[in-house]
Design a protein that fits this description.
Blueprint (H helix, E strand, L loop, with lengths): L2 H33 L20 E10 L4 H12 L3 E5 L7 H11 L5 E5 L4 H5 L1 H4 L5 H14 L6 E2 L6 E4 L2 E4 L5 H8 L3 E2 L4 E2 L13 H14 L7 E7 L6 H15 L4 E3 L6 H4 L2
Parallel strand pairs: 1-2, 1-9, 1-10, 2-3, 4-7, 8-9
Antiparallel strand pairs: 5-6
Helix pairs in contact: 2-9, 6-7, 8-9
Length: 279
């Protein structure tokens, strides 16, 4: 082979390798682009889920936040145990930057925590007779609307202060179910959630009244008897302030850890309560 032919052959080989390399690079880049999965859309409050009728759903609902250190302690236990909970918050209690950050931390922690509406004034500062009177219907309604706006509450879920009432899609029952306020809230699409079981407060003390064993027994009995508001769904009410001391925060941790041993039990937020999911 003469020198010219060798040069041409060498150039052809280089060109061929270059073209092949470019093609392979393009293919690899395209393959990489195609293989990158799109980011999963972040779940927003109120997104429906499929409930499993073989499970027992527990909805832990803590009222009157922000109430540090009880709110902080309860959150820490829920995070450590990896379970979900709903905080019914009161705008009147959000005083100062620390409490505001505490409410922000609850709102921003969805889907583990759900921020819900417990009125701005806690029923005009616990004056329930006035709060639920027909003459104060508009004022009470505006109290909930103010709380929703000021706390930036993402869902239309309400707990009535001092009142175990329920309302969803025209189905009203429980305490004060026929008041003008409840009817108005229901007509505006709000879901009012009461409770099936309460971990109550000791008289004159910020501490839970029932022992862990008593609460476990009551939870199991409720499910076995089928006496919850909706089947296989148990709403537990307590208050942030009951868990201010370490010994009571430890009781909460023990309560949850025992319940978690039952593989039928699932902890959920109230936006996934059966009647709340029904449109």
């Amino acid at each position: 082979m003469n020198l010219c032919k060798m040069k041409l052959t060498g150039m052809a080989i280089i060109a061929l390798v270059t073209v092949s390399s470019c093609k392979n690079k393009g293919t690899a880049e395209n393959k990489g682009a195609d293989s990158v999965k799109p980011e999963t859309a972040k779940m927003v409050p109120g997104t429906p889920i499929q409930l499993d009728n073989t499970k027992r759903y527990i909805y832990l609902t803590w009222d009157d936040s922000p109430q540090p250190p009880g709110t902080v302690n309860s959150k820490a236990v829920f995070v450590e145990e990896g379970i979900k909970a709903t905080f019914f918050s009161v705008g009147f209690n959000q005083v100062g930057p620390f409490k505001k950050r505490l409410i922000d931390s609850i709102r921003n922690a969805y889907p583990q925590f759900l921020l819900a509406n417990h009125s701005f004034s806690h029923g005009f500062k616990d004056k329930y007779g006035t709060f639920y009177s027909p003459a104060m219907t508009d004022s009470a309604l505006n109290d909930f609307l103010r709380n929703e706006k000021e706390l930036n509450i993402p869902v239309k879920i309400i707990r009535l202060p001092g009142n175990n009432g329920w309302a969803a899609n025209g189905d009203l029952h429980g305490q004060k179910a026929n008041t003008a306020l409840v009817k108005k809230l229901d007509s505006l699409g709000y879901k009012i959630i009461g409770w099936d079981l309460e971990w109550t407060q000791q008289a004159k003390a910020k501490a839970p009244k029932e022992s862990v064993d008593e609460m476990i027994q009551r939870v199991n009995q409720k499910f076995e008897d089928g006496t919850t508001n909706q089947q296989n769904a148990l709403v537990i009410l307590s208050h942030d302030r009951l868990f201010e001391k370490k010994q009571y925060a430890d009781s909460l941790k023990k309560f949850i850890s025992i319940l978690k041993q039952d593989k039928r039990i699932v902890f959920e937020t109230l936006d996934h309560y059966p009647s709340v999911q029904q449109k």
